[in-house]
Amino acid sequence: MLLEERFSESSVSLYLAAVLVSTWYGGLRPGLLSIGIAIGVNLVLFDHPELSLAVGVYGFERLILYSALALLVCGLTAKIRRSQEELRTLNAELEEKVKKRTAALNESNRQLEAFCYTLAHDLRAPLRAIQGFAEILIADHGPELDADARKDTERIRNSAERMGRLILDLLAYTDVSRSDFRRQPVDLDAVCRYVLRIFSDQIDQKDAEVSVELDHQYVLADRIGVERVLMHLTENALKFTKAGRRPHICISSEKIAGKIRVSVQDNGIGIDPKYRERIFGVFERLSPTGNSNSTGIGLAIVKRSVEKMGGTVGVESKAGEGSRFWFELSEAPVQKEPIKAPEMAVHERV
Q1: What is the DSSP string of 5-35?
Q2: Which DSSP symbol is given to 172?
Q3: Average pLDDT per run of 10 along the chain, which is 350 residues long?
Q4: For the whole model, what pTM was predicted?
Q5: What is the rounded CA–CA span in Å between residue 211 and residue 306?
Q6: pLDDT single digits (tens) 173-222
Q7: Is the domain covering 184-331 a CATH 3.30.565.10 domain?
Q8: Phi-psi label, residue 310: left if phi above 0, alpha if psi -120 to 50, beta otherwise
Q9: How many CB atoms lie within 10 A of CB 120?
Q10: What is the dihedral angle through the alpha carbons of 31, 33, 39, 40, rounded to the nearest 10 degrees?
Q11: What is the three-class DSSP state of 209?
Q12: Are 131 and 161 a contacting pair, CB within 8 Å?
C-alpha cells in the first residue's frame, strides 16, 4: 500500500500471478524472492513506463506474452526440481542397495575364509600321516626296497611335505586377510636386527654378506606386518641365489615423494621380465623352474600385508643380475624412545 502510487501504471494481476506461481511450485523463499523482484522491477518501470506492462497503456498483448513466458519459466523450474528430487531418491535407494550387497559380500567372504581355514587344518592331518608312514617305510624297510621303490617312496614323502608347507602358507595368507593392522611408529632398525637374527643360521650356511643402510628409521605401519614382509623378502634373497656367486643382500630405506621406501636388494638369479607383473600373485614363482622349497605364496603375502598397511610394493630386476624388492609406507614422527618389541613378534603357524 505504501508503494501504491508507483504501482499505478503496472499490472498488479501479473505481479500477483508471479508470486502465486512461484510460491506454489517453489515454496516460501521463491515466493518472497518474486515479491522482491516485482517490487524492484516496478520501481524501475516507474521511470521507464515504455517498458511496463500497464494494460491501460499497451493492452493485453504484452501482458499475455510476459505471463506466458513467466509460466514457462515456472514450469521448467518445477520440472527441474522434480527431476532433482527423483535423482536424490534414486541415489538414496542405490546407496541402500550397495550397503546391503556390501554387507552380504563381506559375510560371504567371512564364511569362505572360515571354510578355507577349517579345510586347510583338516587337510594337514592326513598329510602328516602320509609323510609319517613314508618316513617309517624308508627308515625301517629302506634296505629291503629296490632303487625305484625307494625313490617313489621318497617322492611321496617329499610331496606330502611340500603340500604341508603350501597349506601353512595358505593359512598365513588367510591370516593376513583376516588380521587388523594397527598404524603406529615402527623402528625399522629394530625390525631388521630381529629378522637377521632369525635367519642367522641360513646367512652363515650361505656365507652371505648382509648390510643394513637405513637413511630413515621410522615408518607408520603395523610392526608384525613389517616383520612379516621383511622376513619373506629376506628369505627369498637367501633362497634364490646364483651358483658360484657369494650372496650379497642390502636392506635400505630412503624417502621418495613423501613416502619411506624400504628395499631388499640381492645379487641372485633375478627375474625374467615376463614374470615381473605376476610374481605378487598367489602360486606364482620367481623363476620358471621354481624351487622345491617355494610355494609361490610368499610374495602374495608381502603384497597383501603392505596394502593393508596403506602402502605399495614393487620390484626392479634383471635376469641373472639380482633383484630389488621394495615397499613404501608413510613416514612416522621420529621417536625419542623407540618402541621395543618382544623377542618373538611374528607368530608363525606350525
Answers
A1: TTTTTS-HHHHHHHHHHHHHHH-HHHHHHHH
A2: H
A3: 52 63 68 71 67 60 65 72 88 92 85 73 80 85 83 84 74 70 88 90 89 91 89 88 88 91 91 74 53 66 87 87 90 60 37
A4: 0.56
A5: 23
A6: 777 766 677 888 999 999 999 999 888 888 888 899 999 999 988 999 98
A7: yes
A8: left
A9: 17
A10: -160
A11: strand
A12: yes
276, 210 contact by CB (below 8 A): no
The string over 3-38, giving b where at least 16 C-beta atoms fall within 10 Å of a residue's C-beta and e elsewhere, is eeeebebbbeebbebbbebbbebbeeebbeebeeeb
Model pLDDT, residue 327: 93
Q: What is the DSSP letter of 305?
A: H
CA distances from 94 to 83, 90, 91 (A): 16, 6, 5
Look at residue 191 in the predicted model and tell me its pLDDT: 93
* Lookup: cell for 295: 610355494
Kindly list the domain boundaries of the chain, sorted by start residue: 12-89, 109-178, 184-331
Q: Are 189 and 212 in contact (CB under 8 A)?
A: yes
Distance of CA 150 to the CA centre of its chain: 49
At residue 81, what is the residue type? R
C-alpha cell recorded at residue 121:
587344518
Grid coordinates in use for 39?
517490487
Q: What contacts 222, CB < 8 A, 6 or more positions away?
A: 181, 182, 183, 184, 186, 308, 309
